[in-house]
What we know:
6-stranded mixed beta sheet, globular
Amino acid sequence: MTVENLPFQSPDGDQRRETINTRQRFDLFRDAKARADGYRGSMVFATVNGGDYLLRSFYDPKTGRRRQTSLGPRSPDAERTKAEFDAGRRQAEERLAAARDAVERQAGLNRALGLGRVPSLAARIVRALDAAGLMGRGLRVVGTHALYAYEAAAGIHLAPDVTTTEDIDLLFDARASIVLQAGEDLPERSLMGLLRRVDRSFERGRQTFRASNRDGFLVDLVHPMRHPPWRAEQTGVADPATDLDAVQIEGLIWSENAPPFSATAIDARGFPLHIVVPDPRAFAVHKLWMSRRPDRDPLKTGRDAAQARAVAALVARHMPHLPFRPEELRSFPRDVVEAVAPLFAGARAPDARFDG
């Protein structure tokens, strides 16, 4: 299969315009939400030990516990501080409400134009991880669902037979040492807790790296196999007795070392989401390597190869800012990179060979 006959579907003018509008409105929404989050909690005057003090109350995002600090006794400066806080919070809330309305109106247009791509449940899971501060900070999406990020960034759609799947893989970067900490509220602060907030039917299976819901949707937590493989390291997110425990996958160490890649995708309901995946060049290299593994499930090797070809051609045609340069993929073995080089025909690189 060549670059010319790969199953790309180019959006029309209306779709391109609204895709750009979606990105812009989502960026404004994320900025507005970050500003509003800065005003979480409250600022009030209260009597403490017979004196009137300005108190700032908030919930610690790391522990979920409520904290309170004193900003000093009542004074003209304290009065001004509280007034500025109250005014700033009102403005931030108004800005967030306007941005949310704009995103919701845009979602209606996106549905009408058929721009929705990411399955709804997968999108809800990604949003939950992003809201918890995990997306791109210890967790990122790998496997078939990463394709939605690549096509969104490229402004094209891949044919359904390339992207169809009923699972979503999450790459756990053990080097980032991400831990969700909470006291009595631990289930709500674990990965399983986050999944159950999305869908209460999620349960951890006998394979402790996997959760599934009543509809059979799978969430796998994986991480790279280390060498030596018996090297001890944390593989779960929270309590190993209740949370998912990442399974070691050979070859993922290469993707883990690749730069992250983020994009604004659109879900089946027309709403945008922020998704972080491996660099698409690394994805293509890893998928081609998997397709040639003798121990790989024969039913999956064809899809692996198809996805490697599709992403390589997508990068070559639609991502000129990501030329195929082997020196940028040195986390992969040389023979693996050389094997995938022909798939990147047309990429802006003067030479696709290793220099040594």
